[in-house]
Amino acid sequence: DADVTQTPRNRITKTGKRIMLECSQTKGHDRMYWYRQDPGLGLRLIYYSFDVKDINKGEISDGYSVSRQAQAKFSLSLESAIPNQTALYFCATSLASGSYNEQFFGPGTRLTVL
Amino acid sequence: AQTVTQSQPEMSVQEAETVTLSCTYDTSENNYYLFWYKQPPSRQMILVIRQEAYKQQNATENRFSVNFQKAAKSFSLKISDSQLGDTAMYFCAFKERGGADGLTFGKGTHLIIQP
Fold first, then answer.
1. Which of A1, A15, A30, A108 is deepest in the core (most CB within 10 A)?
2. What residues contact B28, with CB distance under 8 A and at least 6 apart?
3. A&B contacts, CB < 8 Å
4. What is the pLDDT of residue A98?
5. What is the pLDDT at residue A41?
6. Which of B44, B102, B108 sits opposite A35 (nearest CB)?
7. Using a CB-CB distance cutoff of 8 angstroms, which residues of chain A are in contact with residue B108?
8. A31 contacts chain B (CB < 8 A)
9. Rounded to whole angstroms, how far apart are CA atoms A83 and B101?
10. What is the three-state SS of chain A?
11. Nearest CA in chain A to B48
């Protein structure tokens, strides 16, 4: 089984809809991240969390919110989706004391907002 | 804030050739990590190689090696004996050592290996 899973893998929604992307991990890592990938722009950080009680904004947090329900679960919400939020979304995890602070990525969720 | 620049949006080489992907970065930090990630059409992000800034020796992983020039803030990736399976997007990424936030990525280089 994959260590970092994301659901759904693909989602098409309409402008104005609320949508939640979910991430789960079995690696026992304390840190979790959400990134967004757009063609030609690389990956950009949306939010990150050190533990259940700690949530931090990243470079592009506007229009998004997150919830760390447990150490293993980190959800990303779009309260009112808009077309320019169409992108590939990645969840990642790392161990605070890990070597290189290496991040492990989920398989990604492709979101299309019509 | 750190920035990472990949100046080659796309590269194409013949199978078995050697190819070098460029990456430069800007930071005021002295202790940090650098990474190269591969993203094949499956879209999975795969770590290829990593380097600690305080280590002068260049990292090597099988056919993949880096040329790390700390003073020049340059971190290029060399792929030897390129294979068709190396076709992918390649991203250079930076992380401050001990920093709690995420990776800073470049915009990527699309590498195509021609048969």
1. A108
2. none
3. 58
4. 63
5. 87
6. B102
7. 40, 42
8. yes
9. 27
10. CCCEEEECCEEEECCCCCEEEEEEECCCCCEEEEEEEECCCEEEEEEEEEECCEEEECCCCCCCEEEEEECCEEEEEECCCCHHHCEEEEEEEECCCCHHHCCEECCCEEEEEC
11. A102
* pLDDT for A99: 67
Give tens-digit pLDDT for A64-111.
Answer: 999 999 999 999 999 999 999 999 999 999 987 666 778 899 999 999
Residues of chain B with pLDDT under 50: none
Contacts of A102 in chain B (CB under 8 A): 35, 47, 50
**Which chain A residue's Cα is nearest to B53?**
A100
> Which pLDDT score is estimated for A96?
72
Q: Do A101 and B95 touch (CB under 8 A)?
A: yes
Contact residues on chain B for A103, CB-CB shorter than 8 A: 102-103
Query: Which pLDDT does position A48 carry in this prediction?
Result: 95
Closest CA to B91 of A79, A12, A43: A43
Report the residue from A42, A56, A110 with minimal CB separation from B108.
Answer: A42
Residue range A50-76: mean pLDDT, rounded: 94
